[in-house]
Amino acid sequence: MNSTFSIELRVRYQETDQMGIVYHTNYLNWFEIARTEWFRQSGTTYRQLEEKGLMLPVTKIQCEFINSAKYDDWVEIAVSVKSYNKVRLSFEYEIHRLPDQKLLVRGTSEHVFTTRTGKIVRLDKAHPEVYQFIVSQI
């Protein structure tokens, strides 16, 4: 993954099942945490995009479970832009257990820029400053 941003977190008890293994939907939450922090570290936030009337809904998500994270593990969630065009933005993710760097999960998410009412936005025309911002980050 190019231009990778990563964030670390400790697996909380509430994120696990009775066996102490992370419940599968939590990995998608971790993807979102990494994605929103990618925007923040790049110099903008989801809030700022929404203030401009831009939404970024998920249109497709894929997750491959390779190994399990368990309660109290320290994990790293890495995110990078997979592809980008005037209306769509795709990310790829890898989650590793620390400190051994064992790969736990790999995945992707696809998003489309829309207005608050769901109309697809061609970003280079409607918000060229946001388009250029994202281009400069990849």
**Which topology does CATH recognise?**
Thiol Ester Dehydrase, Chain A
Total of domains: 1
| Beta-strand segment tally | 5
Rg from alpha-carbon coordinates: 16 Å
CATH superfamily: Hotdog Thioesterase
String of helices and strands: EHHEEEEHH
Structural class by helix and strand composition? alpha+beta
Shape: elongated
User: What order do the strands of the largest sheet run in, or round the barrel if closed?
Assistant: 1-3-4-5-2
Helix content: 25-40%
Low-confidence runs of at least 5 consecutive residues: none
* Reported CATH architecture: Roll
Q: How far apart are the first and last residues' alpha carbons, in Å?
A: 11 Å
CATH C-level class is Alpha Beta
Q: Major beta sheet, specifics?
A: 5 strands, antiparallel
